[in-house]
Amino acid sequence: MSYKNDESSGFVGSFGDLLIQFVQFKQSLGYKYIAEEEMLKRFSKFTLNHTVKDYILTKKLVDAWAEKRPTERDVTREKRINNIRQFAKYLADLGYEAYIPYCKIKVDRNSYVPYIFTHEQLRSFFAVCDDIKPHPLSNRHLFLPAIYRLLYGCGLRISEALALKLRDVDLKNGIVTIHGTKFSKDRLTPMSSSLQLYLKRYFVKVHGVSEPENYFFIKKDKTPIASSTVYKSFRNLLWQSDISHGGNGRGPRLHDFRHTFAVNSLNNMVKNGLDLYCALPVLSTYLGHVSTTATEKYLRLTEEAYPGLLDSVDKLCSYIFPEVTSK
Asked: Of residues 83 and 2, which shows the higher confidence score?
């Protein structure tokens, strides 16, 4: 991938070219570096308000960037600091003077309880999505409803959805091919007939003359959609859907569409008589997990979040979904 240090690339400021080289270096090593790239673009804009001399990454600049922001979660701040730490190491290796920060934040990554959308909430959310007004300079009213439906309908991660090319979406057979996933394994993901039909309509409206290597989700100028665009609209659409947000760390989060898909799928399989020992491997493969153990941990919910699920499973399997007492 080739960039230029200008506004079209998203990289600006004194470190723009070096940030571009750094991202390309990481990607050459096999890292996707999608979310990290977006964060480093924000850092490049941040530097515009600070004095930078001779490409020196000073402690003052790094500390200003690493400062905790209002309502910011520790995990987000940790990512910001670690990203700039990696960039600082890269600069030092090139011979530039750079302050390398140390991240002292301790993040509890297992404290979040997945938010499971009700069927009524999903209907309300997608109705609001479908009511997004067209704009002469944007086709958000087309790509946002399609992206959110794919996240829930196939349980995809947002990075997986936005990375899809036209060649990856088989609208004739209803199969999505996911490349370079979180665990660097490709997988085939079937979609429902209703989602297949919806994406066909999206394709006709958005892709006139397109090549197989074009991104499936694109803006009006044919450039790919940034994850930040989807994240920013998500909170506003929740508000319009009368779905309250509990604040940082309490959701709903965009990733909870994947949680909801997984829980509903498991529940449907159990209700249809599929043995849990058979259901878990099927769901694990579909989600792209490396083992059923990952799926078991992923779907560990409180009884309040999914009443009736434990009762439908043999008591011998209850260790998989232990009861959790809400505080």
From this structure: 83
The pair of three-digit structure tokens given for residue 91, joined into one six-digit string: 């600069």
State the Cα–Cα distance between residues 149 and 143, nearest whole angstrom.
Answer: 10
305 in Cβ contact with 266 (< 8 Å): no
Distance (Å, whole) CA 37 – CA 228: 11
CA dihedral 128, 300, 75, 15 (to 10 degrees): -70
Tokens of 37: 């790239």
Quick one: pLDDT at residue 285?
Answer: 79
Q: Is 135 helix (H, G, I), strand (E, B) or coil?
A: strand
How far apart CA 107 and CA 266 sit, in angstroms, is: 29
Report the pLDDT value the prediction gives residue 315, as an integer from 0 to 100. Answer: 44
Q: Collapsing DSSP states into helix, strand and coil, what is residue 242?
A: coil
Rounded CA-CA distance 127/17 in Å is 43
Are residue 162 and residue 222 in the same domain, yes or no? Answer: yes
> CA 317 to CA 18: how far, in whole Å?
53
Q: Map tokens 């479908």 to a residue.
A: 130
The mean pLDDT value of the chain amounts to: 81
Scanning the structure block, which residue is given the tokens 């002469």?
A: 136
The reported pLDDT for the residue numbered 292 is 66
Q: Looking at the structure, do residues 287 and 262 belong to the same domain, yes or no?
A: yes
Domain that holds residue 73: 16-93
| pLDDT tens per residue across span 162-220 | 999 999 999 999 999 988 655 557 888 999 999 999 999 999 999 977 788 899 999 98
Work out how many domains the chain is built from and give that number.
3
Three-state DSSP at 177 gives strand
Q: Show the tokens assigned to 253.
A: 């989060």
Nearest-angstrom CA–CA distance, 236 and 316 = 43
**87 shares a domain with 176:** no
- Say how far apart CA 8 and CA 48 lie, in whole Å: 16
DSSP code, position 104: -
